[in-house]
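Contributing new complexes? Match this layout with zinc ion.
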Amino acid sequence: MKPRNKTERLVAELSAKLPAITEKQKQWAKDTCFEKIGYYNKGEVWCMNCGMVHEKTVSPLGIDLVGDETVCPHCGTHLKLKNSRKRKSIERWYFTIATTYRGFQVFRHFIIERQMYKMSGNISKGYEPYFSINEAVQNWISEDGKEYIMARPCRPMAWVYDAWDFCKPMSIKDKVNGRYSYSPDKYDICSEFIYPVRGLIPKLKRNGFTFRCKGISVNRLAAMLLTDNEAEMLIKTKQYNLLYAKSIRGIPQDVKPSINICNRNAYRVKDASMWIDYIQMLLHFNMDTHNAKYVCPANLKKEHDKLLKRMNREEARQREIDKMREALGWEKTYAQEKGRFFGICFGNEDIVITVIQSVAEMVEEGEAMHHCVYACGYYKKKESLILSAKDKEGNRIETIELSLRTFTIVQSRGVCNSITPMHNEIIELVNKNINLIKKVA
Ligand SMILES: [Zn+2]
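Output block (do not edit by hand):
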């Protein structure tokens, strides 16, 4: 992309003048970025530091070598052993150099690639590793927190988003997302390895910039710190987790006052998303979000789960109420559709069966019997008639659903959908009196 304005032109120009990476920096990357491991196979250890092979016998029981250590006789490196028959190893890592240039904060991201090969024979032969180091991306951040990107183009490979083409020169790039976007893009690089000699512009130093903030790429953190007082407050109070949450999806406005309470009580939030959830539940229940007793719980998970349970109970209750309200709205329709059956009543010396005469009665029936007769909306079903079987004392025994199309019993259930000892008797009674229903249907 061509620079589109004065600052972009300046950045492109300055970028070309940046010093090349030094031998010392290269050596540091070679020494730091790769795990010191030895691949063990059939009595041989292939050193992943110098590439040489040495013999090592292990006891027959020592089959699982993971976690074992050995010292390479060629380079003297302590190696963590791993079982592997690998004969080829290619590893790539990002590392970052932080520097300043003409008032800009610059983060230079390099890729170090190491290729290693081993030849098998009677005694395997190893080769010295081959390294290549190339610069992929530079984040240029001006003092007012604006970010400019210089980067290589990427080769179009569907399965790798950062296949930088090191044969092509760096040029100004557009960020796909805004600075406070939800997902970091390929120019936001969180490298694990940052060269220990670091340059920072004074304003960043003053605002508390640190490389210890995990999860946020250095360029995003720098831009945040230069433009946002809240970010500065969070980093200075070591609320790294809240800062991370802020960089990902922001912190809700109504939660913010509680952060001050945390800071006043030297309470560090460890799980920001859970804590934010928790504070929002406190707010929901009108609990005091300025009180350290609530805001800074010793056991966040426990308090969070307690409120969550309460929240779920409340929601369930609300759903119940909504459902009931909806059900009662059907009262008129129900009376119109089923009114002609309302007088029907039959039974024997033990059982009385009646047609349920209103939605309210159905709600009552459902609650008493702990089944879904109203929750499932049977009052809406044109084709079913709901009857209630009670004993002589008026206690509910079973609820019966009858099909008005076929005049057969669809189901008859007792408490919690059980089948009662009187089930067969009830079925028989309904079938015997089905004509009473047919007559008015
Ligand atoms: Zn070695």
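Reviewers usually confirm one structural detail per submission. For this one: The pocket of zinc ion is lined by residues 47, 49-50, 52, 72, 74-75, 77 (CB under 6 Å).
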